[in-house]
Amino acid sequence: MIRNPKGVYIIAIVSKNRIAFVIAALMFAASAGAIVARPTKKLSEDLPTISLEAMIPKQFGDWRDEPSRVIEVVNPETQAFLDKVYTEILTRTYVNSGGYRIMLSLAYGSDQRGSLQAHKPELCYPAQGFRMEKDEPGRLITPFGDIPVRRLFAHLGARHEPVTYWFAVGGYAIEGPRGTQKRIVDLRYFLTGRIPDGLLFRVSSIDSDPAQAHQMQDQFTNQLLQVVSPADRKRLSGLGGS
Fold it and tell me: Is residue 211 classed exposed, middle or buried when 0-12, 13-18 and 19+ CB atoms within 10 A define those classes?
C-alpha cells in the first residue's frame, strides 16, 4: 500500500462509493417503508379499554386514598383541553400510617402523536409560578425492571414539591416526550402502521427534603405496581412494551 499510493487512492474512492450506495439504498427503503406503513390504526383498539378509576386501588400496602384531603395538583391546562387530549384522567391523594401524603396524577390518551408534550410537568410548574430547583433524569428500581424517570423539585412560597414522573408510550417507558427514547418508540410504531397510546404517571409530595420525598414516592409506586394485575402494571409502567 505504501509503495503504490495511487492504488490506495483508487481503493479509497471505491470504498466511499460503496458506502454512499448503501446509504442511498437504506434511505430509499426507509422512504418506501414509511409510505406503506403510514400509521392508520390505534394500538389501543387491540387492547382492553382502560379505566384508571378501576385500575388503581384506593388502598394498597401502607397507603390509602384520602378523599377528604384536597391538595391542589399543579395543572395549567383547562379541563376542556385535557378532555380533548386525554381519554382518562385520575388524581388522588394517598396517606400512609405515618401521615405522609403522596399526590398521584395519571393521564391516559389513546393517540399520543405529540399531545403528551402538552403535559410536561417541568413546563406545568413554571407556568403556575413555581421555581424549578431541580430537573434531572433518574431511575425507579422495581422488582419488574428499572423505569427511566424524571426527578423535579419545584417551590412556590412555602410550598416545596418534589416530583417523579415518566411516560409510557405504546407500552414502553420513557422519561420524557422528547429525545432519543421517544423517537425510537415513535419509529417502531410508525414502521408497523400503528398509532401508540400513552400514559403519564406522576407522583409528588409537599416536602422540603427532595431525597426523602423521592424515596417515599418510589416506595409508594413500588407498592402500587405490586398489587395491580400484570396487564395493568405493563400499561402503567411501560415495562415490556406492547
Answer: exposed
Copy the grid coordinates of residue 158: 412555602
Determine contact, residues 191/32, Cβ cutoff 8 Å. Answer: no
Length of the chain measured in residues? 242
Q: Each residue of 61-74: pLDDT tens digit?
A: 999 999 876 566 66
The answer, yes or no, to whether residue 21 has pLDDT greater than 70, is: no
Residues in a beta bridge with 32: none
In the DSSP assignment, the letter for residue 73 is P
Q: What is the DSSP letter of 50?
A: P
Q: In whole angstroms, how far apart are CA 241 and each of 57, 100, 103, 171? A: 23, 33, 26, 4
Helix 230-237, helix 210-227: angle, nearest 10: 150
**pTM for this prediction:** 0.72
Residue bearing cell 383498539: 45
What number does CATH give the domain 41-237?
3.40.1000
Give alpha helix (H) positions in 110-179: 121-127
